[in-house]
Amino acid sequence: MSIHVDLELIALVAAIVGFGTAAQFLAAKYRVPSVLFLIVAGIAIGPEGLGIVTPDTFGDALSTIVGVSVAIIVFEGSFRLTFETVRTAPRAARRLITIGAALSFLGTALTVWLFLDASWEIAFLVGALLVATGPTVITPILAVVPVRDAVATTLETEGIVNDVTAAILAIVLFKAMTAQELAPRGFVFLFVERLGMGILTGLVIAIVIWYLLTRVALPAEAAPQTARLLALSGAVVAFAIADSVFSEAGVAAAATAGFTLGNLELPHRESILQFNQDVTLLVLSFVFITLASLLEFAVLRALGIAGLGVVAVVAVVLRPLVVFLSTTDGEFPVRERLFISFVGPRGIIPASVATLFAIRLQTNTPPSDPAGANLLLGTVFLVILVTDLIEAGFARQIAAAFGVIETEE
Q: How many Å apart are CA 359 and CA 376, to the nearest integer?
């Protein structure tokens, strides 16, 4: 019986990987961000489609699978983000990850509270999660939409940094829901605690890997492969250590390890980078399809017109407002500001963390809130679904409409 179940699971994983590879192939052929095909594939094999994958398929292991996958994805994105890129990044990028993130958080929370009659706790959770755009959706877009370096850097920097801060902010707010009383400084302490733990762990792991790669002699034929494997293991180990101390600190650890290693003198850098990108594409495909397959349309339909209103405010009002406020010093012409405004799809972090929160809220242990769980999950997934299908799926057309596509040589 156990062997039969294992074979079914292996076949299922193989099918998901196959769908993911097909999505990447179609994305490359038709120059459309792969996210679009991944979502469609996930819905097709989920409860709303063929029913191959259900919420019970992976059971309690889902959170672990998603967590490790997110660590690899975030590590790869931050590895490519050099200090020089950040230092010379447009001021708009710095504003988007500070003032812009704060405005998105508060504006989204207020919208959810007004439109969906949600409690402030659920509204703030949704607001925190939807701050994140993330490299999981931005990178595939930039792979098929060539734009000016300043635009690409701004979107990438925002995605990587906001992925980390959104995840930590959301978990802090969720933990505050379980506390009897928590003063404002308590929120700050929980946030700094997790961010600090993640940064410290990431730095230590990065230094260890750097030492092993630069100070330990390896046979020439084995060195490139060893470098690739050490870098990948660094992402997972950093995530696991930090997350075992404080939940969601692992995301910050993986990001810090990637950013640190990406800015150190490493042998076989190009080999590491290419390997990370290949592994990330595979992991991204698996996780996106798996999470999309858990989508239940009944939860989305329950939001009604008000849910679509939330999506409209988030994507068409808040996002452009935040972008235009962050780009007031003339760095970007209006056409590029409009493009950035309408390319803010949400990715893996909101989907995965919202799923984990919903599972917890649907249990009988405090803070049990089944209705809040459905509202949280439905709102987050509706925003992800609409923004990914429209903003990611038609990113090239949006770029062409605003005239921001750079000539490819």
A: 11
